């Protein structure tokens, strides 16, 4: 683990940072962060240690991960009723694959955006942690950070009462002021991010000499790094050597998000990994590289998602790599945000707070397809 002597929970402030909100009342923001720092950890160190032991099995090719959930969680759905339905959905999907199940849940409240403003000049929605879906309430509000901490704690308490298989929690490590407030140190002087088991850094914020990577390098949790089309060899090698300098199992996971027409890049990425002997396992996010517009709605096609999954498995097998996980944005609810066979969008069933999600039926179809691919792969080994 990279417990850098120069690292602290605030040392990320020495680096350039992207995608962070600016608060009009800076003092209120700082006072709010201090309140969060004074709270006890939400997850204890042993919870995260147990999760780490499971992810070591993934690094060794012994287990497969299914990571799934909402693009952006909204506070209005942070209720026991909604959580129970979502946990049950994640559980059922995980059972099909006999997978380690990680929810995009109990904290997936902040979103990066490619543009700060909408076309009319309104601030973009950045997730309930930062501002509101309501166009009249888009200024970043520090009080939302306390709500985020409250609902994360409440969600994890609800998860502990869930009677199905073990579900771990994850979210994008985006709002560094907020995230760093949850860092706690154990008796062995190791730092843990205690509001999630599995944080990941997005493709927009993964630069090795920027703040997000230099924050996450110092925490003990396993971490994911989203890898998109703009990655190059130098950046790929530098960020993973920064995150996992001792090349440990269970530490670093590359979440590939290239898109169905850009998968030749995956061959390069695998070559860079093998050439440098980096200890990295590959997940696939077949959602984010396949966004298209239909009637003014951002959508994804099931055919594109399944094609990318098929190609991911094929390329990894050709390069003697083992698929380690699948990362899906999905919901148990009857939405029409992703489509199949050019079906029409029902605006009343397009309810996502940000990006399009698979519904229950679509998710199940894709996971059954993945199960077939995994069985074929295992039969060859």
Automatic annotation (TrEMBL):
Phosphoenolpyruvate binds at residues 104, 226, 257. One of its GO terms (molecular function) is 3-deoxy-7-phosphoheptulonate synthase activity. Its cofactor is Mn(2+); Co(2+); Cd(2+). Belongs to the class-II DAHP synthase family. Mn(2+) binds at residues 71, 288, 329, 355. Transmembrane segments: none annotated. Signal peptide: none annotated. This is Phospho-2-dehydro-3-deoxyheptonate aldolase. Binds 1 divalent cation per subunit. The enzyme is active with manganese, cobalt or cadmium ions. It catalyses: D-erythrose 4-phosphate + phosphoenolpyruvate + H2O = 7-phospho-2-dehydro-3-deoxy-D-arabino-heptonate + phosphate. Keywords: Amino-acid biosynthesis, Aromatic amino acid biosynthesis, Cadmium, Cobalt, Manganese, Transferase. One of its GO terms (biological process) is aromatic amino acid family biosynthetic process.
